[in-house]
């Protein structure tokens, strides 16, 4: 009985360590997005370097958490809800690592934009607006993960639909700019890459929120509408 209780407590401790590490990784990734957007709007070389250089730390965090999860599976052989927890963690850190990649991409595009002779400083109003929504989605997804609360998933899916529409609008604007003035083609393409990176950040945040629904409810809500997610959460 004592051994079983000890086993259970150690198992819970292992899971909690993995969850804590995920939240630490998530916090770091949030900072990377913020730094990347500041670098984009200011052209700060130090920030650009920092975002690019720190991407390896995000990668290292993913590898470390993945190893913890592998050890839990080998030692504890989790089943049912515990196994769903491990699956959620592994999938979440994959999306967080990819968000880090997108932040690095934004920083690299900022470097290109600010190291060439430009006719004028690009307007980032729309980009900053959609980025603020994507960052809010990441924050909500991490909060949902921390509380194991699936109720924000539908809202995040709706935000993702808005981010997708904003990306399409920005793309149409940039195409118009390029058609009107071929001298703007290079910078417009770089801004388009930034917009696409932000759109992908939103996609990854949506994925993370859906993993929480899977963990708590045991239901796969990928590729369904926000209304369908709400229905499945209520069931």
From TrEMBL:
<feature type="domain" description="PhoU">
    <location>
        <begin position="23"/>
        <end position="109"/>
    </location>
</feature>
<dbReference type="InterPro" id="IPR038078">
    <property type="entry name" value="PhoU-like_sf"/>
</dbReference>
<dbReference type="InterPro" id="IPR028366">
    <property type="entry name" value="PhoU"/>
</dbReference>
<dbReference type="GO" id="GO:0045936">
    <property type="term" value="P:negative regulation of phosphate metabolic process"/>
</dbReference>
<protein>
    <recommendedName>
        <fullName>Phosphate-specific transport system accessory protein PhoU</fullName>
    </recommendedName>
</protein>
<comment type="subunit">
    <text>Homodimer.</text>
</comment>
<comment type="function">
    <text>Plays a role in the regulation of phosphate uptake.</text>
</comment>
<dbReference type="GO" id="GO:0005737">
    <property type="term" value="C:cytoplasm"/>
</dbReference>
<keyword id="KW-0813">Transport</keyword>
<keyword id="KW-0592">Phosphate transport</keyword>
<comment type="similarity">
    <text>Belongs to the PhoU family.</text>
</comment>
<dbReference type="GO" id="GO:0006817">
    <property type="term" value="P:phosphate ion transport"/>
</dbReference>
<dbReference type="GO" id="GO:0030643">
    <property type="term" value="P:intracellular phosphate ion homeostasis"/>
</dbReference>
<keyword id="KW-0963">Cytoplasm</keyword>
<dbReference type="InterPro" id="IPR026022">
    <property type="entry name" value="PhoU_dom"/>
</dbReference>
<dbReference type="Pfam" id="PF01895">
    <property type="entry name" value="PhoU"/>
</dbReference>
<feature type="domain" description="PhoU">
    <location>
        <begin position="127"/>
        <end position="212"/>
    </location>
</feature>
């Amino acid at each position: 009985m004592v051994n079983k209780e000890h086993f259970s407590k150690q198992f819970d401790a292992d899971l909690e360590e993995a969850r804590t590490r995920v939240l630490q990784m998530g916090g770091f990734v949030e900072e990377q997005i913020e730094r990347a957007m500041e670098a984009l709007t200011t052209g700060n070389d130090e920030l650009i370097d920092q975002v690019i250089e720190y991407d390896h730390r995000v990668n290292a965090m993913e590898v470390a958490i993945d190893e913890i999860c592998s050890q839990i599976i080998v030692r504890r052989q989790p089943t049912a809800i515990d196994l769903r927890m491990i699956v959620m963690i592994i999938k979440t850190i994959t999306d967080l690592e990819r968000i880090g990649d997108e932040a690095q991409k934004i920083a690299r595009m900022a470097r290109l934009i600010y190291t060439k002779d430009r006719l004028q400083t690009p307007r980032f109003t729309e980009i900053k607006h959609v980025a603020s929504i994507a960052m809010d989605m990441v924050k909500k997804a991490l909060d949902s993960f921390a509380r194991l609360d699936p109720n924000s998933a539908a809202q995040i899916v709706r935000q993702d639909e808005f981010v997708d529409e904003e990306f399409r609008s920005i793309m149409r604007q940039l195409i118009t700019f390029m058609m009107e003035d071929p001298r703007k083609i290079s910078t417009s393409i770089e801004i388009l890459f930034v917009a696409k990176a932000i759109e992908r950040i939103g996609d990854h945040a949506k994925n993370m929120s859906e993993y929480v629904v899977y963990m708590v409810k045991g239901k796969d809500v990928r590729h369904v509408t926000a209304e369908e997610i709400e229905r499945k959460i209520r069931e």
